[in-house]
Amino acid sequence: MYTHKPRALVPLLASSTLAGLVLMAIPAGASSTGHTSSAGSIANVPYSIVLEDQFLATLHYLPVAFVPAVRRPAPTPTTTTTTLPPTTTTSTTTTTTPTTISASTSTTISTSTTVKPATRAQRVVRWPAALSRRSGRFVWRFPALPAAFRSQWQVGTVNIVLTGALMRFQNVHNLPVTGNMDTTTWLTLLRAVLAHQYNPTSYNLVYVQEALPQHLTLFQNGHPTFSTLVNTGIAVSPTQIGTHAVYLRYTSQTMSGTNPNGTHYSDPGIPWVSYFYGGDALHGFIRATYGWPQSLGCVEMPFADAHTLWPQTPLGTMVTVG
Asked: 99-108, 148-157, 208-217: lowest mean pLDDT where?
């Protein structure tokens, strides 16, 4: 009996998107890379989880879409014309005797108005309208996705679906893939919104069903596109139930560790590995049969099927086991 875990386990990435982000001081009109923004400084846009939801949904990194509220046009004012009867005007001439003012007496009234310039704190900070929080609602782009997955996301909360979307964004933009929001990621996200830089790939979900016969289904943009029989963990070392994000990948790896009976193993050449929770990974492994628990936590499948699946599981891909 083999377990399939990396030599040095990488800790599971918690969904730790910050509820408040303090941005570093950047001169107005400049970006973190030193480029000037013609639309004004974006460094002043305050962070919030709802804005992160809005932006990642707009750029198609989330399985939901943001639909802005439709503003109703202002009503057209009504003009009423009233005809008045003709009037008679009487001209009256009035003569007024001027008041005599002594030459030795003079009165001067001096009026002076001083306007204080607005302090730095009082100046209105402006940024492009596209970066403002807008009224609207979120709707599922792919309502056919499994309910066990869809229940993991809720607007304005820290959750694994949001973390996975952020990881995918970081990966696409060549940033450290941490799943955590930081200043560089936030400014990159703002620039991506202004430049309409959408997710270049489909939104993928790997759904592993533990009911016998155990099988895996790949959903791409809500449509099942691939399925294969798999083996999950045995009772003493089950595969982690729930939704997780792929955080580490190898085309081939030597896996070593300790079996439940205390013996050690070392399996070279394990192909097409995508870790999604601790030492649990999707990968190829040769077995006589597939479709029932045989591993110590990993999701095993035939080599050819693992090869087909691997390109569709980049960092940040959601894996739901249930």
From this structure: 99-108
Is the CA virtual torsion 307, 313, 314, 320 positive or negative? negative
φ, ψ for residue 174 (rounded to 5)?
Answer: 60, 40
Sheet with 242-245, strands from edge to edge, namely 223-229, 215-220, 204-209, 318-321, 242-245
CB count in 10 Å sphere of residue 209:
18
Whether 322 and 232 have beta carbons less than 8 Å apart is answered as: no
* Range scoring the smallest mean pLDDT among 13-17, 197-201, 228-232: 13-17
Strand 299-301 to 280-284 pairing = parallel
Out of 88-92, 234-238, 257-261, 304-308, which region has the weakest mean confidence (pLDDT)? 88-92
- CA of residue 13 relative to chain centroid, distance: 16
Q: Does pLDDT of 37 surpass 60?
A: no
* Three-state DSSP state, 194: helix
Q: Quick check: 34 pLDDT over 90?
A: no
Residue whose C-alpha is closest to residue 249's, from 159, 188, 317: 317
- Residue 187: helix, strand or coil by DSSP? helix
* Residue 189, token pair as written in the block: 């996200």
Q: What is the mean pLDDT of the chain?
A: 80
Q: What is the pTM of this model?
A: 0.75
Token pair 């607005």: residue: 118
In order of 169, 205, 216, 303, 306, the CA distances from 219 in angstroms are 19, 5, 10, 20, 15
Whole-number pLDDT of residue 18 = 41
Check residue 302 and give left, alpha or beta (phi > 0: left; psi -120 to 50: alpha): beta
Question: H-type helices in 147-264, by residue range?
Answer: 147-150, 160-172, 183-195
DSSP assignment of 209-241 equals E-SSSPEEEEEETTEEEEEEE-B-B-TTSPPPP
Tokens of 115: 């306007």
